[in-house]
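FAQ: What does the model actually see?

It sees only this:
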Amino acid sequence: MKIRYIGLFITLIVFTGCAELLNVMQSSVAVPLTEDEVVNGLKEALAVGAKNAAGRLSVENGYFGDAAVKIMLPDEAKTIIDNISRIPGGEQLVEDVILRINRAAEDAAKEVAPIFVNSITSMTVRDAFNILRGADNAATFYLKATTYSDLHSLFKPKIQNSTEKKIIGNVSTKDSWVALTGKWNSVANSWPASLPD
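And it is asked to produce this:
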């Protein structure tokens, strides 16, 4: 099962941070900013973005209720999804798995802000100006380069624990995935499914 919420989280931070930075820049247009003020403004904007994104994603429906960041099943599961949806109750089973994956991500997102804040506070003057003068996605690349390893190390066990946590109806995301794939396997191995088209 492929989880892509880290990239979505970084994107959300950057968008929130850019809005914050625009506010800082607009409030001081009349007075030229020093290099330190620019760097500190960027750091503050990105830190606020990180905290806001973590707060927004870690609540119920933070992922599931937002189409822009909602985590769907990976493309690798398309055959299972298409076929399991054809049997009675199959569509609901798929939707339950998607809900549980998103709940696991919402649960894990509660502790992500400190990693981003650490990355932002460690930013050098050169990093800050590379972001400000770089491409539109320069902040995204910076955050990905400086947080991905820590996020992966921190979140791999957290996502595993979250997916095994009994979240809805005493059923975990992992239980739902096993039920979904098990149901598919039983249909795929049945006599009618083995007939040629």
